[in-house]
């Protein structure tokens, strides 16, 4: 699907099932006019996987599904995790990636601030299980792993020789960024690149050839997006800012980012 100006874009990370159905239907109608070709809809648990699958069947030409368990959520019972892994294996042909998975940086920090003990080991074990699953199914993996957690994730990815990794909305040190880039991983940027200097500095470090764009909707944004409902059309502003930071034209930046995303997620 091509917008009126010939631009094609892909939102590489959105929690589509968190929106109301009426809003989703409206969004899907609007996407072609915005130049947004597809959205990669990630999942946060088994129920979310089922909802994303339902949406995928409703809009198969616009939704690219990914199935996983969000690390900032309380770990589910073992039986539910078994069901989730069975679901992923059973639906691997329709699934573009394992995700969203990773490590609970924000939950852990919140617990530490309260003086509470937080057991990280079960989350590391689960992440390793998802990485092994991605390797088994020959699928890319979508990661929520920021700051020092990204190094834990890299250790596991390297251990199991998984090279197709997408670190969404990443934050971390220059040293960790170099490690991610040397391994051929991808980092995606959200609309906060417009108004956060930390994110703009990060974008300058990441080669455009390893860059994607996302909204992480319905997460709300500030700056010029304050008060707006997060919509995939916002990635146009992200691409424009990347173009400025990389001293490239909008069209060239969009072409590279689109090709990155299509290749990573095997979107045809």
Could you explain how this protein is built, in words?
The protein is α/β, with parallel strands linked by helices. The chain is 46% helix and 14% strand. Strands 1-2-3-4-5-6-7-8 form an eight-stranded parallel beta sheet. α5 (121-137) crosses α6 and α9 crosses α10. The relative contact order is 0.14.
Q: Overall mean pLDDT score?
A: 96
Strand-residue proportion = 5-15%
Secondary-structure element string: EHEHEHEHHEHEHEHEHH
Number of strands: 8
Let me know the largest β-sheet. 8 strands, parallel
**Secondary structure tally, helices:** 10
In short:
With 268 residues, this protein is an alpha/beta fold. It is 46% helix and 14% strand. An 8-stranded parallel β-sheet has the order 1-2-3-4-5-6-7-8.
């Amino acid at each position: 699907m091509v917008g009126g100006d010939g631009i094609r874009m892909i939102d590489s990370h959105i929690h589509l099932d968190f929106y109301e159905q009426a809003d989703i239907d409206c969004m899907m109608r609007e996407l072609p006019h915005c130049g947004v070709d597809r959205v990669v809809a990630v999942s946060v648990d088994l129920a979310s996987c089922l909802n994303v699958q339902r949406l995928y069947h409703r809009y198969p030409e616009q939704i690219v599904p990914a199935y996983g368990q969000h690390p900032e959520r309380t770990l589910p019972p073992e039986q539910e995790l078994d069901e989730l892994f069975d679901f992923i294996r059973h639906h691997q042909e329709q699934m573009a990636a394992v995700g969203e998975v990773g490590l609970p940086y924000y939950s852990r920090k919140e617990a530490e601030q309260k003086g509470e003990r937080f057991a990280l080991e079960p989350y590391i074990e689960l992440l390793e299980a998802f990485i092994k699953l991605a390797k088994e199914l020959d699928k890319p993996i979508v990661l929520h792993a920021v700051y020092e957690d990204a190094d834990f994730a890299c250790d596991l990815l390297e251990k199991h020789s998984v090279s197709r990794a997408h670190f969404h909305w990443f934050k971390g040190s220059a040293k960790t960024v170099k490690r991610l880039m040397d391994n051929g991983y991808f980092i995606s940027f959200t609309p906060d690149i417009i108004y956060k200097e930390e994110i703009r500095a990060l974008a300058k470090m990441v080669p455009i050839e390893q860059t994607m764009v996302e909204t992480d909707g319905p997460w709300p944004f500030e700056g010029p997006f304050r008060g707006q409902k997060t919509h995939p059309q916002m990635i146009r502003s992200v691409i424009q800012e990347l173009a400025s930071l990389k001293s490239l034209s909008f069209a060239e930046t969009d072409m590279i980012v689109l090709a990155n995303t299509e290749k990573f997620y095997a979107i045809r």
